[in-house]
From TrEMBL:
Belongs to the prokaryotic molybdopterin-containing oxidoreductase family. GO terms for molecular function: 4 iron, 4 sulfur cluster binding; metal ion binding; molybdopterin cofactor binding; oxidoreductase activity. CDD domains: MopB_CT_Tetrathionate_Arsenate-R. Keywords: 4Fe-4S, Iron, Iron-sulfur, Metal-binding, Molybdenum, Oxidoreductase, Signal. InterPro entries: Asp_de-COase-like_dom_sf, MopB_CT_Tetrathionate, MoPterin_dinucl-bd_dom, Mopterin_OxRdtase, Prok_Mopterin_Oxidored, TAT_signal. Residues 894-977 form the Molybdopterin dinucleotide-binding domain. This is Tetrathionate reductase subunit TtrA. Residues 238-679 form the Molybdopterin oxidoreductase domain.
């Protein structure tokens, strides 16, 4: 109903209110016809309830699927109009924790599950099983006029957005064979690139052969669709140059948390709050359920905790006041404004208060082994009491003192000081060890070394600065830091601290490491009411579903990628550059470009920077599938755009996507891809704390063009057909085997997905079989034939059962085990107060080892110089931050239900700060970057932003996704102005001037791209 209709209807209703109520009494809406009369614009109800049975509304069918309105991938259920084959409504899948606080047992039949959701069932309506606002808006993406459904080839220059339709077969032929494809000269096809055995750059042989000059930019969030692409890229073609979005999105926080949880540098962790029993939670740089942590499940659990429990409080530490706290009502939830990029200072202040006032969990921290932890009633232990050698020049300097060095055992066993008698003993002792100790240890060879416990080092570390200094750096007053520390240590283990994409200054990794340390101080990991580390852990991650009980899907001769990737992930000291410098007698440090030996991050942005610098080489071909780094990667666009628009520098660009975005607009060819309800997908659910996955099949006919054999064109089909044309392993005939060694081919996407689903259904406890009624009720009968063609009869039942529930999860009888989570949803590891592995990684500029403990420092460039020394407070007095509004994301500009909520974003700042510059809400202003660029938009000045900070939401300011007109086959599809509204802060953001050539601004520990705490200025226009 449009606004005019709405007003008209409203006034009629107001005039005849009393009459209407009588009419309503007289004519109860019991039939579809009557309902249409009362609510002419409403959709049909999902189900008609008759007694205790439900059936879909007339003309509709029901199915389970997944939501991909964001990367959480919540379980979904949908109603499909039979006449139009369109999904007309989407809700949550009640079997999945992401959409239902207490998910139904998989033993509940689907029709019974749906009945329980109906009001008539009088079942607990907490279980309404919903999707969030974004999830409800994605329905409009399917038949959008700007959707790419045909195979397109560019006409004119790259980026002009002029295309012609070609057949899929022509596209495959041209991209594989190459030739003078655009009248601009010869282009190497994929065949020639793959077959070339020469080095990509003879000066850098360690970066591998010419076939490494294929770059594939993707997104791991596509779950097993990403696996499909990875099968091609990594195992069939064999290039190490796979880029994804994590490392310019928030990888450093997950990796930083990993430092506090594992004794390696290449793991991730990202726990969520156990809302149901938590007493006090801190959210750093995000609101609960926002910024990528499930809006659907996180916000529901928060609301329930707030509404039902008077003993739950939470604090949001964020430069920006967002929706889930308020300025005036601070009883349950409080906003603590912080200067953008000041988070680590706050956390160090809290750690200082906690350690200096002995408010940590002493017995937990002093247990050096599992045996000692068991005696204390703890389920995990830490290395807080382990002795670190502090003897410069000694081989064990900054490493743990080992039993081997003491002549008492192996190098794997470390040493501690037994608290009871002060004796140095091995760390497998079941006795409590000293937390604070500094002294000498006599080694087996008679020498002596200085040693100090990890905890004592941490105490020194957090006392390197005063509380006042931490307060100044963070903008959080001393009293508030003390209060937060006190509150955090006043509820036993029932406290939590979490983030997601929240702290992306140059110390984002360190900030997350410090967060993990705070949780360790109170033993909140794996605790009831504490932190749950199973966030988003999929069934497919816990079981080998590619090498499953029925099918061995990876059973083929894999191509092994050779060489470092172009963004230089790995050990610089193993590189040719390092060795050559030593041979020439030159100092090997700094490296020519930054290396990263902490986490192989696969940063699409850094790969493109390497290409722009032609160092180690330029790419010859680029696949852009389901990703948009030019729009999303902070600082990237102007660094690389010339090098990708020039066909002489990059011969072949292929975009695979349902939409033209700001990156694939430069493609030579566009391959249409599927949207969520059209896909095969097996995926983890972000925000689910049970081990579980969604499993879904196409529930509507894909809208993409068909190939000559009648199969819908999509990413998987493209990858299959390119592989077959090139004769790559793992695709075509003889692609994998079953458990008995029989070989199978992979010619269609379902050739892989069907056996994958069968493996998932038969892993762990084999699922039962569904009834025929369940199969029909969930519309699984429509796809049953695809399974019957590929599976053995006895494999059908459990596999279809999984689909009749939309996936599977491991249901727990008991969620808790005493004070802790059930072991099935715990991450039982040794938590790290000192990460020894990190202390063995060298900085590629200075050649110095990194520190094994969190570091608080000012923001620094790659060369170690302070950012503020170059970009002064006087010239750039503000710190910049970006944020993800709750109902927008980078793909949402094409959803009218979301653009209707607001077409533009604002330059958000504190009213006092704005006043100083003569600005008020509604004024136009320019935010000034030291990069020499500016961002012009409308000011929103109030008290919802921390002093000294300017913040801009992302997901606006698009030039593509239908924001501008597109020409296909000479016909212009006009752009839609509402899609272009607002400003995109990413291209404006800074890069690192201490790097050579094109660059990005980097996290100091993980090399991820940063975007927060960046100096900026402002001026009125
Ligand atoms: S949180 Fe994301 S996946 Fe879940 S319902 Fe919302 S948009 Fe869909």
């Amino acid at each position: 109903m449009d606004r005019r209709q709405f007003l008209k209807a409203g006034s009629v209703a107001a005039l005849s209110a009393s009459g209407a109520s009588k009419a309503a009494q007289a004519e109860t809406p019991t039939s579809d016809k009557a309902l249409e009369k009362f609510a002419p614009n409403s959709l049909k109800p999902e189900f008609v309830v008759d007694g205790k049975t439900v059936k879909p509304a007339e003309g509709q069918r029901f199915a389970f699927s997944k939501c991909y309105g964001c990367f959480n991938v919540c379980g979904a259920r949908v109603s499909i109009d039979e006449a139009t084959d369109q999904v007309v409504r989407a809700w949550g899948n009640p079997y999945m924790l992401t959409s239902n606080t207490e998910p139904f047992s998989m033993s509940v039949p689907p029709s019974e599950a749906m009945f329980r959701l109906a009001a008539a069932s009088q079942y607990n309506q907490d279980n309404a099983a919903t999707l969030c606002g974004r999830g409800n808006a994605v329905l409009d993406a399917f038949s959008n006029k700007h959707r790419v459904t045909q195979c397109l080839k560019r006409v004119g220059k790259r980026g002009e957005n002029k295309w012609k339709t070609i057949s899929y077969e022509q596209l495959i032929k041209e991209v594989t064979e190459g030739g003078n494809l655009f009248g601009e000269g010869h282009v190497d096809g994929l065949k020639a690139i793959h077959a070339n055995p020469n080095y990509a750059n003879p000066l850098y042989p360690d970066f591998g052969p010419v076939k490494n000059q294929l770059l594939v930019s993707t997104s791991t969030e596509q779950a097993n669709r990403w696996d499909f692409m990875h099968r091609f890229t990594h195992s069939a073609w064999g290039t190490p140059n796979v880029g994804n979005k994590d490392s310019y999105c928030g990888h450093q926080q997950a990796a930083g948390w990993g430092l506090g949880c594992f004794d390696v540098v290449d793991e991730i962790a990202l726990p969520i709050t156990d809302f149901e029993h938590c007493k006090f939670a801190i959210f750093i740089g995000t609101n609960p359920g926002l910024s990528g942590n499930s809006l659907n499940s996180g916000s529901r659990r928060l609301a329930k905790a707030r509404a039902e429990r008077g003993d739950f409080k939470y604090v949001v530490v964020d430069p920006l006041l967002r929706s889930l706290t308020s300025e005036t009502d601070t009883e349950n939830g409080e906003w603590v404004p912080i200067r953008a990029g000041g988070d680590t200072a706050l956390l160090f202040g809290m750690l200082q208060c906690i350690i200096n006032h002995k408010r940590y969990r002493q017995n937990y921290l002093a247990a050096p082994s599992q045996a000692a932890a068991d005696k204390q009633g703890e389920v995990n232990y830490t290395n807080a009491s382990y002795l670190v050698v502090k003897q410069p020049g000694h081989p064990l300097h900054n490493r743990f003192l080992t039993a081997e060095a003491m002549g008492l055992g192996s190098a794997e066993v470390k040493m501690v000081r037994r608290e009871a008698d002060g004796k140095l003993v091995t760390s497998d002792s079941d006795q409590q060890a000293s937390l604070i100790y500094q002294g000498e240890a006599k080694l087996a060879d008679g020498s002596k070394v200085n040693v100090e416990t990890a905890f004592a080092l941490l105490k020194k570390r957090v006392n390197e600065h005063s509380l006042e200094q931490y307060a100044k750096h963070s903008g959080v007053p001393v009293a508030k830091i003390q209060e937060l520390a006190r509150e955090f240590t006043s509820h036993g283990r029932q406290v939590a601290i979490e983030t997601n994409t929240g702290c992306n200054a140059t110390d984002g990794g360190q900030c997350a490491y410090a967060m993990a340390m705070l949780a360790t101080m109170v033993g909140a990991h794996n605790a009831k009411g504490g932190l749950n580390h199973m966030n988003g852990v999929g069934f497919g991650m816990m079981y080998e579903i590619y090498d499953g009980p029925l099918y061995k899907l990876n059973d083929f001769a894999h191509a092994e990628p050779v060489g470092f990737n172009a963004e230089r992930s790995g050990d610089y000291e193993q590189s040719e550059e390092y060795k050559a410098k030593l041979t020439r007698g030159e100092p090997p440090y700094p490296a020519n470009q930054p290396w990263n030996n902490t986490f192989v991050q696969e940063n699409s942005g850094e790969m493109l920077v390497a290409h722009a610098n032609a160092n180690p080489f330029q790419f010859k071909a680029w696949f852009i599938w389901s990703t948009n780094p030019i729009y999303n990667c902070s600082g990237l666009k102007d660094q690389v755009v010339d090098s990708i628009t020039d066909p002489d520098q990059l011969g072949l660009i292929i975009g695979i996507d349902p939409y033209i975005n700001e990156t694939n607009v430069y493609a030579d060819y566009l391959v249409p891809d599927l949207l969520q309800y059209e896909q095969w997908m097996y995926s983890r659910m972000w925000g689910s704390e049970y081990i579980g996955d969604v499993a879904c099949v196409p529930v509507i006919e894909p809208k993409t063009v068909k190939d000559a054999k009648g199969n819908p064109v999509c990413m998987e089909q493209f990858v299959i057909d390119v592989s077959k044309a090139l004769g790559l392993p793992g695709f075509g005939d003889d692609a994998f085997s079953d458990a008995k060694g029989r070989r199978y081919g992979l010619h269609l996407p379902q050739d892989l997905y069907v056996p994958l689903f069968a493996n998932a259904a038969h892993s762990g406890e084999v699922l039962p079989s569904p009834t025929q009624e369940e199969i029909q009720f969930t519309s699984v009968d429509r796809i049953q034939g695809e399974f019957a063609k590929r599976l053995k009869p006895e494999e059908m039942g459990p596999t279809l059962f999984m689909l009749t529930r939309g996936g599977r999860y491991e249901q727990l009888e008991q969620r808790y085990d005493g004070e802790f989570l059930n072991p099935a949803i715990r991450m039982d590891v040794q938590f790290q107060v000192y990460n020894e592995a990190l202390a063995q990684v060298k900085d590629s500029y200075s050649g110095e080892y990194l520190d094994g403990q969190p570091v608080f420092d000012v923001d620094r460039f790659w060369d170690g110089s302070a950012v503020r020394d170059r970009w002064s407070e006087t010239q750039y007095p503000f710190s910049f931050s970006t944020f993800k509004p709750q109902l927008r994301n980078a793909y949402s500009a094409q959803l009218p239900r979301l653009t209707a909520l607001g077409e533009a974003n604002f330059i958000q700042m504190n009213a006092e700060d704005a006043n100083k510059y003569g600005l008020k809400s509604g004024d136009r202003a320019q935010v000034l970057s030291p990069k020499g660029t500016h961002l012009e938009g409308v000011v929103q000045a109030d008290h919802s932003v921390a002093r000294g900070t300017i913040s801009v939401g992302i997901g606006f300011g698009h030039s593509q996704f239908g924001a501008q007109s597109v020409t296909i086959d000479g016909e212009v599809i006009p752009g839609q102005a509402e899609r272009a509204g607002g400003i995109n802060p990413n291209p404006f953001n800074v890069v690192d001037p201490t790097r050579k050539g094109a660059s990005l601004y980097r996290d100091r520990t993980f090399g991820s791209t940063c975007r927060h705490g960046v100096p900026v200025g402002i001026r009125k226009v």
